[in-house]
Amino acid sequence: MATWKDTSYWSLPLLLLFVRFCSPVCVEVPSGTEAVQGQNMTLLCISCMQREEVFAITNVEWYYEPSDGNGNRSLIYEYIDGRHNKPQSQFTGRLQWIGSKDLQDVSLILQNVTITDSGRFFCQVNRTLHFEAHQHSTQSNLEITLIVSKVASEDFTSVLSEIMMYIILAFLTLWLLIEVVYCYRKISKAEEVTQESVTDYLAIPSENKENCSVPVEE
Ligand SMILES: *[C@@H]1O[C@H](CO)[C@@H](O)[C@H](O)[C@H]1NC(C)=O
Ligand SMILES: *[C@@H]1O[C@H](CO)[C@@H](O)[C@H](O)[C@H]1NC(C)=O
Ligand SMILES: *[C@@H]1O[C@H](CO)[C@@H](O)[C@H](O)[C@H]1NC(C)=O
Ligand SMILES: *[C@@H]1O[C@H](CO)[C@@H](O)[C@H](O)[C@H]1NC(C)=O
Predict the structure, then answer these.
(1) How many other C-beta atoms lie within 10 A of the C-beta of residue 171?
(2) How far, in Å, CA of 125 to CA of 141, rounded?
(3) Looking at the domain 26-153, which fold is it?
(4) Using a 6 Å cutoff on CB, does residue 31 contact ligand 2?
(5) Is the shortest distance between the CB of 35 and ligand 2 below 6 Å?
(6) What is the annotated signal peptide range for this record (predicted)?
(7) What's the rounded Cα separation, in Å, for the pair 35 and 45?
(8) Which of 2, 31, 60, 196 is placed for a possible disulfide with 79 were both Cys, Cβ 3.0 to 4.6 Å?
């Protein structure tokens, strides 16, 4: 239940399952950016390998820059030469590696998120291929801007139903307006017609009267 709220995209776990079970397929799914205080947040970082990088040595570094950090980022986690290193930081004891064996997924779980965890996380993945005479390196950088809120934002479905309600309300109002205008026109037209017919009615008898009165007088 918690992970569903953590990711905030309900489709994300499905995509992750897809990535995990179909190992030849790697999809660089973007990380969720909204976390809730006191819950666990997955800092998703997927860096797909090129076919020729299968034998590359992968090093990973995670950096954090607080919201008001003035570009001052600090190392919070690293995976270098097969060893996990966790430098002392505000995240000490709260970061859990959930990366995959092939190191295409190098994600972390940040446990018990606090408001002060808001900021930018950087996931840096280096892959180095060693050849006899030279080495070839590739580097990928991913940035996650984490926003921590005190309470869970509303469910997607409730937001959707709220939007639907507003659409229906707007539609009904418009329909009512059209109906009112239409009715008003119809009524004023009908009034014109009745006024005309009333004057007709009044006019005809007077003519008739005159017409009638003439023979009577004769
Ligand atoms: C966060 O993760 C830790 C360790 O996996 C677990 O013990 C804890 O219950 C989790 N907390 C929440 C709110 O899911
Ligand atoms: C990746 O390479 C860059 C440039 O060589 C270096 O500054 C950085 O520390 C490396 N990162 C990792 C995770 O090895
Ligand atoms: C960056 O932050 C570290 C601690 O997180 C601090 O020791 C250092 O002085 C800061 N550097 C700058 C330029 O603000
Ligand atoms: C989460 O953090 C709060 C404040 O930092 C602390 O009081 C609480 O005990 C922590 N909960 C867990 C499960 O670590």
Answers:
(1) 10
(2) 6
(3) Immunoglobulin-like (2.60.40)
(4) no
(5) no
(6) 1-24
(7) 16
(8) 60
Encode burial over 7-41: b for 16+ CB neighbours within 10 A, e otherwise. Answer: bbeeebeeebeebeeeeeebeebebbbbbbeebbb
The model carries a pTM of 0.64
The answer to whether the CB of 74 is under 6 A from ligand 3 is: yes
**Which atom of ligand 2 is closest in space to residue 61's alpha carbon?**
13
Q: How many residues does the chain have?
A: 218
Distance 183 CA to ligand 4 centre (A): 64
Sign of torsion, CA 78 88 43 121?
A: negative
Q: Which residues does 95 contact at the CB level (< 8 Å), separation at least 6?
A: 62, 76, 77, 86, 108, 109, 110, 111
Token pair recorded at residue 23: 């190992």
**How many Å is the Cα radius of gyration of the chain?**
37
